[in-house]
Amino acid sequence: MPYAAITGWGDGMPPAVLSNEDLSTFLDTSDEWITTRTGMKERRIAHVSAIEMATLASSRALACAGLDPSEVDLIIYGGCSNDEIVPNSASGVQVALGATRAAAMDINTACTSFIYGLSTATAMVQNGTIRNAVVIGVELISRYMDWSNRNVAVLFGDGAAAVVVQATDQPSGVLGSVLGCDAEARQVLRVRGMGCTYAGVGITLGDTAWDFDGQAIFKRAVKGMSEACARVMAQAGVTADDIDLVIPHQANLRIIEAVAKYAGVPMDRVIVTVHKYGNMSAATVPVSLVEALKEGRIRPGSKILMPGFGGGLTFGALLVQWGERVTPLGESGMAFPANTRAALEMVNAIRAGQDPHGRSAAGLAAPQFAESRTGAAAPA
Ligand code: UT7
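A: This is the predicted complex of the input protein with oxa(dethia)-CoA.
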């Protein structure tokens, strides 16, 4: 049975930064509250569609792996804030990349979508169905946010990253995989109205209401991720001392610290990006992986623990062994269209389409930047 090595990686991070101070201009909140409760200082707001973010990340990952889009067998698009439900989003990435041979599927397990996706792609490589896959973690949450609800509006951000997975005989890639779902409490994280951007008939951008019991999610996140870490380490026959790096889901610095403590791994071996990007749901783990590589924190053969948790309440943990190469083979020529608007300006445009309770009135036009939702990322 072959292994499924991670041979390419790339991000598709939108440039516009929304600070805690920006949020304080329209919410009863403060930099002090957000920083002490979550560790977050900034998050990104996309001026492009989720498919554009996913396409740029995938293009960079393919260039990094030295793999032509025509050689991709499967694209897995992991996320829950899709531009549309039908057609699926992976097909949008397929056409934008020109990966004409690739099968294309979406996986939505909310924040764990990348972890579930990487586990799935690995299994499909190992059973011989495919040889080359692109696995994406992407979210465009700003369009679905209830910006009048401070319980959730301060927590989330937009972003994307992708990896290329390829069949190899060398022991590397995902060596252990634990996936699960604490569905008994699935009602503590629900976004009513998410998943449809159809403007004009009562469901429009940002037409959502969030049910979010932060404390219940917090406790179950720590339990779910900690148990998954223990199980995956036992499955792979490793202990905390063998773990070179933990790349956890980034929902709250306090959750990350608790999970690292239970796993027995000191924080200097944990990648933290939550202060820069907030909670990007499915994108947090791959974006943090790309940052770790850029910072030289992953070495040939590194053993990496990747725990995650999200709506459902899904959880999981992967044990990844890195291969030999930690530098990209090439660079993509693709880039986002230029952005001319500040993050707060874009958020205020979305807010303008929402009533004070976060629900938009029927027939309201979508925000001006919605036209970019249909276009693919353009070559630079
Ligand atoms: O990725 C998906 C998984 N999501 C998560 O894992 C999130 C898990 N939960 C959490 O990270 C935390 O529970 C939160 C960050 C969401 C909240 O932190 P907390 O320490 O659990 O705060 P809390 O909900 O107990 O709220 C404490 C106080 C409340 O006021 P009172 O009742 O004490 O007067 C809230 O109304 O803080 C208030 N509050 C805020 N104040 C300022 C809630 N949100 C805000 C805010 N700014 N944005």
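Residues 214-236 form the longest helix (23 residues). The pocket of oxa(dethia)-CoA is lined by residues 29, 33, 37-38, 111, 150-151, 154, 214-215, 217-218, 221, 251-252, 255, 279, 309-310 (CB under 6 Å).
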